Sequence to fold (558 residues):
Amino acid sequence: MSATLTIFKREFASFFATPVAYIFILIFLVMSGVFTFLFGEFYERGQADLLSFFDFHPWLYLFLVPAIAMRTWSEERKSGSIELIMTLPITTMQIMLGKFFAAWAILGLCLLMTFPLFVTVNYLGAPDNGVILAAYLGSWLMSGAFLAVGICMSATTRNQVVAFISAIVICFVFVLAGSPVVIDLFQMWAPNIIVDAIAGLSFLTHFQNMAKGVIVLNDVLFYVLSIAVWLFAAYVVIEQKKAH
Amino acid sequence: MISVKNISRVFNQHRVVDDLSFEIRPGDVVGFLGPNGAGKSTTMKMLTGFLPVSSGSIEINGLSFTQSGREALKIKQNIGYLPEGAPAYSDMTVYQFLYFITQVRRMPRTTRQQAIGKVCEQVQLEQVLNKKIEHLSKGFKRRVGLAQALIHDPNILILDEPTDGLDPNQKYHVRQLIKNLAKDKMVIVSTHILDEVAAVCNRVIIIANGKKCFDDTPETLKKMSPLHNAVTLKLSYASDISGLLEIDGVLDMTHTPGTNYVTVFAQPGRYILGQVTSHIQYHQMPVDMVYPEEVRLDDVFRKITLESNQQEQV
Fold:
């Protein structure tokens, strides 16, 4: 545990040692603002909730999370520090978890920094703050799943651009799987069970309830499992490919 | 003790390391030599547990990487490793980086500062302690890599080109450091600089094409040179030198016409400088100077590795 914490601290600090974290947080805040107020019609809806804010999160994460995940392993490979860290008395899984939690903490920080929105709705009306809290939690969980995909892609290559783009593509597939376009496409010919299975794999479907403040064990489990599976895949890739 | 038995490593059906075996005991300072791509770095990566062996076995103090993860960690705890190119986290300062290493190595909190202070003195890093690693010169970066390898006072040191990028003074300093550290440790140093081997190591392993082609002391390596114990003389003007060949212990002689330099080669294990000089005096040969030849390890290295290449092609 302490080894994971050591890696976590180093990785977390390294986001702030370079402008990465600041720029990321800034872009996240600007983009979420744009989405909420311009496209989400926050005021026009006339409702004291943050649905218009959370609804856009999957699309926001689609581009932003791969950007923060892409350096995770690619940079270690490129600079050769992977050889240093993996010959220290620490396991690959400890490194993996340390890295994951550090980046996830940055994403959590981004969400925390959107508190002015929370203050605004509370000033304008009387929202159900339990719902908002649940949605925040759900959003953070979902970002973890995006992050795990990004870390896995980063583990496959020393090129950060390749890691970024492949992560976007895979995340896109997982988001899109639950969108009406895809569901309709399959509904025309496939049996319901397949349609449900495809929709069930979507990051989007599992977030929809959470954005409304409904936390179902099912959805939580889905994201936790997604994180576990993708991180394990990253672990396997690193163990297999560290030689190259 | 490090015991390497018949290890091989295959990348894409190419055998980078091929059936390599050797043993290293405390007190051994091994110079690991070989042409580029001979498999030196790959062997070091396997010794440090970064790469698994394709076949064969590595035992370090009776433990092996293939056993449980706990044992692998125990081995890694005893090794100090400077990877090729001395990679480090460049966004950290030297102090932050070394502190991070002491944390990962689980050194007791109370000893960390002391360890950092000591190692920085050893490799002369005090003046850049609070600078970011990315802003350091190549020589300093190399020394940061050395510092992280030495910080926990390991009993096995594996250094991949430790003096690369250092200036002659720093090279000298690092060599002295390795020599001083080496007393009861096992040290493996890979290098391209053959003088370094003679200066630091008490054992040389040369590999070419992934195979071991020499494993003995630097002195034995020197003896393999035809120039070992050879004597060169410069004639003032052309004169009869055939008598030199008849001296007891002389193997052969070369004469470079035009320059009037004559090199007399000794039979293996024979010293001929005394006889050659008395021969010159006795026959009153017109000689401007006489000097014993310096063995150039580069030549021996070339000879050994080229022979191995030719064997490979056959």
